[in-house]
């Protein structure tokens, strides 16, 4: 009596039936098989074991439902480096690389600058600055212990010297910094875009009217900046004018907003010309 033949799935078959764009499907299958994407391109006829095929199909179903690819892969590239990512942190966006570049431009002009990253999440901003600015003393804060665990893992993996602190913005922070950078929550509660971000931590996304965290960061910055120190914040596509006004009221000068690759006003920067004068402006 002859048995029924069993069709063994191949790389080509699984990619074709995944229901995902080819690049995403290939990335997920390479992750599942612990092979490079190039290897899958070179060997589409490679047979895939039943268990691996089943796990791949489960991952593709989650991706089709909207779960970010970075969470399924456990990693995301940012500023030329690979960062571990988990649902405890926001997925790093390309536009945040603009914030890093602008912070680097300012920090590189200083000798051994003190740098603070507020709301560090995965640590991608703080770690990028620490690795690219010689002799910098870099600190990263976050209110989420889970996020700090991810950040510390990334610092260890990338051999970056960053001190991570559990803190609600400036609470518990002492001393003055030459550069303060932040990509805080800036999505207003009830914003229509939140439905597209349902897998990411609300704590890293939502901020009351959208400006509440930005207000705290900007208002509190002069007390923590050295004379001539810089504050840089990322913000929403429609918040640039309001953020510039917050900078002005807090006593900053040299206020500018830079546009990202999509030509959206994305990062506003300002200089604390005189610490005491800036403090007085808030009282």
Compact summary:
This protein is α/β, with parallel strands linked by helices and 283 residues long. The protein is built from 11 helices and 9 strands.
Question: What secondary-structure arrangement, pairings included, does this model have?
Answer:
Blueprint: H1 11-16, H2 22-33, H3 37-42, H4 50-64, H5 69-73, E1 75-78, E2 81-84, H6 96-107, E3 114-118, H7 124-132, E4 137-142, H8 145-158, E5 162-166, E6 177-182, H9 212-220, E7 225-234, H10 240-249, E8 253-259, E9 265-272, H11 275-282
What does this structure look like?
Strand 6 (177-182), helix 9 (212-220) and strand 7 (225-234) form a beta-alpha-beta unit. The protein contains eleven helices and nine strands. The protein has 283 residues and is an alpha/beta fold. A seven-stranded mixed sheet has the order 5-4-3-6-7-9-8, sandwiched between helices. The radius of gyration is 22 Å and the shape is elongated.
Query: On the 0-100 scale, what is the average pLDDT?
Result: 91
Unreliable parts? 275-283
Shape: elongated
Number of beta-strand segments: 9
- Largest sheet: spatial strand order: 5-4-3-6-7-9-8
Over all CA atoms, what is the radius of gyration? Answer: 22 Å
Structural class: alpha/beta
Q: How many strands, what sense, and barrel or not for the largest sheet?
A: 7 strands, mixed
Count of runs of 4 or more consecutive helical residues: 11
Q: Element order, helices and strands?
A: HHHHHEEHEHEHEEHEHEEH
